[in-house]
Fold this protein.
Amino acid sequence: MTTVQIFGIKSSQAARAAERFFKERRITVQYCDLQKKAMSPGEIRRFVERFTLPGLLDTESKAYVDGGLKYMKMSDAEWLAKLENNPQLLRLPFVRAGNRISIGRDEEAWKAMISA
């Protein structure tokens, strides 16, 4: 039986959609609320290696725009620290099932995860 790990925040519509998607298909979900506990460095590195650090950012989010981050020049370490403290900057949810991962609302990737 497949177990899916979802990293998100409860106020994220996309994270709630991912949770609903898997629960409707009777897939065991482990939900990690990023506002309560940040992702481990190894876990975030896995997503960065696959999608790149800029690929993880939600450049249209209110937190990104209101923070004036479009014009800021920061190192990767500074970005990672900022993301750890403010998960609203991420394209949520991050979904992992075994070695398969996806970011954002990506139902095609989710279907591939449960069919594997």
In short: Strands lie at 3-8, 28-33, 94-97, 100-103. The first helix runs from residue 13 to 24. The radius of gyration is 14 Å. The chain is about 45% helix and 15% strand.
